[in-house]
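Weekly puzzle thread! Below is a chain. First person to post its structure in token form gets bragging rights.
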Amino acid sequence: MQSQDVAPHSPSAPADPVIDVEQAEAALVEHYPRLVRLAYLVLPPGPGRNRRVLTAHALTQRALPRGRSSAAAIPAQSSRRDADPGYALIRLQVLRSALAAGLPRKGGWWPRRAQLPPLLPQVWGLRLFPRSGGADELALEQQLSALPAAARAAYVLRGLEELPDATVREVLTAAGVEDADEALRRADDVPASPALLDSSEFDPCSLQARPTDLKRRRRHTKAVLAAAAALAVSGALVALPGDGWGPDGAAAPAYAENPSARAALDPARLTRAAPTAWKTSARLDFSVWPARGALTRDTALLRRALAVWARPGRGVRVSTTPGTPSGGPAGPPRLLYAGEVDGARVVVLYDGLRIARYAEPKDSTAGAALDFARVDGATGAEASAVVLGRADGNVRYLTAPWVRTAAERDLVDPDAQATGLPLRDGVTTPLASPAQATGACTSWHALQLRDDSGRHLLSDLGELVPAHLTTGRPAAPREVSGKRLRAWAPFACSLGSVRTQGVRSVNAWQYAGQPLPDGSGTAAWVCTRAETWRGDGTRVLAQFRSPAGKYGAVAAQAENVPQCGPRVPHVLAGVLWKGRTGSWYLLAAGDGDTASISATGEVTGSTQGNLLTVRGKRGAQVSLKGVLEDGTPLGVLR
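Winning reply:
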């Protein structure tokens, strides 16, 4: 690793440079995705995501000046991108227009230009919206929605544009914000990480598409054309009421007349397992879960859940784990739960491949949510719990009928006693959710379940189905309980790196222990491997923990590799470590089947066996290679 000192560079520039249209257009084209994202984040959330996407594109495209412009009014910038006066000019105009969209109408009724439906771009026959993110992105969206437009702009300029507060204040003032200091103070109230602004949840250039009302559009083409002509002549803005309490609730209008598709959406045809089916079944999976909850006979609720599953309306927030299809069920799904959870009506369904959870407020269908998780092949511990809801930083689970007891356990503190969670009709009381935690990681609360086969440990990673935690050699992982809880304690916080990644299970394997050269004890080398439901996307971390450290440090990481797994139960990693005396060492370790390790580069050395200790130096660039006992080469994890 090399470090360099870079002297500041402040090129001189003439006063008040003039920006021509060509320069502004080049900046707009080069930075178009970032400018559209900025507009999308600052625009008010009220009109819906489809309208917000199109408006963001329209405002950005209209930001191009009609003639040469002076840069005198553009605030000084700091980054390379912002040093381009053309970009700064376009960004300022985009910001002005997005802020204007959130202002009151002129005279209380006449819309401003930014509040009108965009003439261009236009998309006919499709509704477009960004890809859904995870729980963190949803929380940030809600927090930004509660802010005034100026505070949203301050938060975005800080997080997305990475501008210092002084520059943010200048840009907001230039954009017409009267009290920039108040906007910055309100932006401080958002607890979510600004890094989430780069998520696909807020990318209006990477979109999903849904059909509009196909049958009604076909029947009323002439009426639509007439209405469009009337709108063009009069310039009036017609606002239609939103979601209502129709039989399908928040679902979009039907656009399929296939008999099988209609049968799959009939609540009378939902399948239900007998309450004792799991006791005689050859397998313990979601197919033998009985229907539970107080609303399993609420036909209207079940009809809305099925209709929204097949045809999510524009106001429905849809989220899926990676690799999970979101289309309707091929046949009547199985009902697992229908009841009230933390102020919402919740329905949980299973179609053999996926778990689908539908949730709506108790007094309306507006704001309905639909979540999907892939669970094909889940049995035993992996089919022992489903998330019913999250609220106030807590999570509530529905457990399998074979679960006898549930408890909450802090993985970071293995000596602490587990806290019992009473079960009522299989539903747990709320427990702290690490998926919604912010700030430094000082605890990691997991769900401990006990059934006839023993205890199982599960962790909420922001999805419908919690991940199953195990420990031991990859070929024969074991459940985390008793003394084996200590294996996870230093590495529990690393689970945060695989939130919302569709993780099925995570195994922690201590593959080596290495005596430290300064005599301070023995360091642990642990490999954690996160398997996903879709197969690819696996993530492997090799972590190093010295006796003086409370947490493990990531020494190497890789994705989609077989190492540290049942197919290749081997791993090699190294780290530069500073001893108590100030000396630096290269420490490397392979698993027990490693016959030799060699290092080349700025530090050289070799050893017979699976542990290498060589005098090194800070920031040295080193390559490691190993050989297994059967002669197979073993590369370093990367």
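Puzzle host: Confirmed. Bonus trivia for everyone else. The chain is about 20% helix and 25% strand.
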